[in-house]
Specification:
- The two termini are 17 Å apart.
- The chain is an alpha/beta fold and 279 residues long.
- The protein folds into two domains: 7-16 and 141-275, Rossmann fold (3-Layer(aba) Sandwich); 43-132, no CATH class.
- It is elongated, with a radius of gyration of 23 Å.
- The chain is 55% helix and 11% strand.
């Protein structure tokens, strides 16, 4: 494992996880939503039958109906899975369009909201209010955090290691603690990794520190504990970041990395896996 670096050196290595996005710029996804909205706007009537027919002809556009009633794509997946036992909206739209629309209308008032919003004239203030919604912030924060998780998972896959993500591992005396990646599995944990990426500040950073401290406190001597931490949000919570760094200095965790040092993380992960007979 790499020796602990100077804290200021680590702090300087933190980078932005999410780029600024021009809110007026178009993307293929945005254009798809525009096209779907125009299609819906051209329907002669809005009722169960017409919308069911539309969704059967446009199965990939079910998420636009979700947006109509305020469901993000992730929430749409979750509620579909809960009700239909699958999150596959394309299959549902093709095979059971009437049942899909009837449920969306019964549970989320789809037909009324679709008819209302098709005919409403929107002002500039409505655009700004939509952008200010908490879902926009939450989505971007989630994406930045998931980027770090996705990177470490990709390395585990490339090394052909058995693993689980976003779970709890068992450490000393049967105690458990959260982790973002465990190798090979929860009960037989040999290597555990925390992935904490934040471009914004808030309570999640404090929670991240507590999780890593908990991982360090219950680890067995034979277990490796590593942390990949990045994002400019940490620069507003330097004291929290310093607490994690101190765990590295004291040997309570085995490594602390940023996205810019993932090559070192990969090297250390591979070495740890060899030492534990996983490769």
């Amino acid at each position: 494992m790499a020796a602990a670096h100077d804290f200021e050196e680590y702090l300087a290595a933190l980078g932005r996880l999410t780029a600024h996005i021009d809110p007026t710029a178009s993307t293929p996804e945005a254009q798809e939503i525009r096209d779907a909205a125009r299609d819906l706007d051209s329907l002669a009537a809005v009722d169960h039958e017409s919308v069911a027919r539309w969704v059967q002809q446009n199965p990939a556009r079910v998420p636009v109906l979700g947006l109509t009633v305020g469901l993000s794509q992730e929430r749409l997946k979750n509620v579909l899975r809960d009700h239909f036992g699958t999150s596959g909206w394309v299959t549902l739209a093709l095979r059971s369009p009437r049942e899909l629309i009837a449920w969306l209308d019964e549970d989320f008032d789809l037909i009324r909201l679709l008819a209302l919003q098709r005919n409403r004239a929107y002002e500039f203030s409505d655009v700004l209010i939509a952008r200010a919604g908490t879902r926009v912030t939450a989505t971007r924060a989630g994406q930045s955090g998931r980027r770090v998780e996705d990177e470490i998972e990709a390395i585990a896959v490339d090394l052909d290691l058995p693993y689980r993500t976003r779970t709890r591992f068992t450490g000393r005396n049967g105690q458990t603690a959260p982790c973002d990646l465990v190798i090979p599995d929860d009960d037989q944990a040999q290597i555990v990794v925390a992935a904490k990426g934040f471009d914004s500040t808030g309570s999640k950073l404090t929670d991240a520190v507590r999780e890593i401290q908990e991982m360090a406190s219950i680890r067995r001597p034979s277990q490796f504990v590593m942390a990949v931490i990045d994002g400019i949000g940490w620069k507003s919570r330097v004291a929290d970041l310093r607490r994690i760094h101190q765990l590295w200095v004291d040997g309570d965790i085995d490594g602390m990395y940023t996205l810019s040092t993932l090559d070192v993380f990969r090297h250390d992960l591979e070495n740890a896996a060899h030492l534990r007979g996983l490769l």
